[in-house]
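Researcher: We plan to redesign the surface later, but first we want a full-length starting point. C-alpha cells attached.
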C-alpha cells in the first residue's frame, strides 16, 4: 500500500460565480516530485494556496497524513509540516541572510525570544543555521541584507528558510520565475538535492517544460480548475488531449 503524505479530497473554491478549483482529488507521496502544470488561469496557484492555507476552501478537504488540516491557518500548516515558496520572494528584507535563516531555525526548534538568554548563546541553533547557509552556498553572504541579494540569491535564501523549517512537504510556485539564465541551474540543483531525501514530498508549479522534464517524477494537469491528467511525465506529455488542449505552447518549450 502506498503511503500518502498529503491529499486533497474534492477540493473546491468559488469566487462569486467562478469556480477556480473544481473538486480536485489528488494524493501525493513521500519521495516523489509532482509537477502541476496547465495554461494560465488553470487554477495552479489557487490550488497551492488552498493546500498551504492562504485561501480557505469552499468545500472539500486537505489532509496531511491522516490529519485533516482544512481549517488550519497558513502559519499552523507551516508548523504542521508544509513549507511554501512563492512566485515572489517572501523574506525579511532588512535582516541579514544569516538572521533570516536563524529565525527559521529558531521557529522550527520552538525557541522564543528570551532577554535573559541572548541568541548567541544558542550555539546548537547557530550551527544548524550555518549548515543550512552552506548547503545553499550563501555562507559567503551571511552578513548581507536580504534586500541586497540578487534575485537568484533571494530564491536560494527562500529555499534555505524552507530547509531550516524542516517541513515534510516542499511547495515551489514557479521557482525560476524572473531569473537570469545563469541563476536558474542553482535553484534547480537545490530542488534536485531535496529530492534525494525520500522522506520528503515536493510539489512544483512550473511553466518551463524543460524544468518539469528534468525534475518531475509525476505530472498532474489542471484546466479550468479541474484535474484532467495525472501520471508519469512521458505518459502525460504524450497524451493528445494534454498536448492539444492544455499544454499547447508547453510542447514547443514556451510558457503557457
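Model: Full-length starting sequence:
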Amino acid at each position: 500500500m502506498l503511503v500518502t503524505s498529503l491529499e486533497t479530497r474534492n477540493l473546491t473554491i468559488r469566487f462569486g460565480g467562478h469556480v477556480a478549483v473544481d473538486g480536485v482529488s489528488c494524493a501525493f507521496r513521500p519521495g516523489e516530485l509532482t509537477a502541476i502544470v496547465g495554461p494560465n488561469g488553470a487554477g495552479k496557484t489557487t490550488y497551492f494556496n488552498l493546500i498551504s492555507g492562504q485561501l480557505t476552501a469552499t468545500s472539500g478537504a486537505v489532509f496531511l497524513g491522516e490529519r485533516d488540516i482544512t481549517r488550519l491557518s497558513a502559519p499552523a500548516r507551516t508548523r504542521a509540516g508544509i513549507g511554501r515558496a512563492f512566485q515572489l520572494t517572501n523574506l525579511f528584507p532588512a535582516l541579514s541572510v544569516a538572521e533570516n535563516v536563524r529565525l527559521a531555525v529558531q521557529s522550527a526548534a520552538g525557541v522564543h525570544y528570551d532577554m535573559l538568554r541572548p541568541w548567541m548563546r544558542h550555539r546548537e541553533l547557530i550551527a544548524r543555521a550555518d549548515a543550512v547557509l552552506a548547503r545553499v552556498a550563501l555562507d559567503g553572504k551571511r552578513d548581507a541584507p536580504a534586500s541586497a541579494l540578487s534575485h537568484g540569491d533571494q530564491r536560494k535564501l527562500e529555499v534555505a528558510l524552507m530547509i531550516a523549517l524542516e517541513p515534510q512537504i516542499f511547495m515551489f510556485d514557479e521557482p525560476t520565475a524572473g531569473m537570469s539564465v545563469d541563476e536558474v541551474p542553482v535553484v534547480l540543483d537545490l530542488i534536485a538535492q531535496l529530492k534525494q531525501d525520500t522522506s520528503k514530498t515536493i510539489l512544483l508549479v512550473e511553466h518551463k517544460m524543460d524544468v518539469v522534464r528534468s525534475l518531475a517524477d509525476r505530472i498532474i494537469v489542471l484546466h479550468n480548475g479541474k484535474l484532467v491528467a495525472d501520471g508519469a511525465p512521458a505518459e502525460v506529455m504524450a497524451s493528445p488531449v494534454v498536448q492539444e488542449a492544455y499544454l499547447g505552447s508547453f510542447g514547443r518549450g514556451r510558457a503557457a
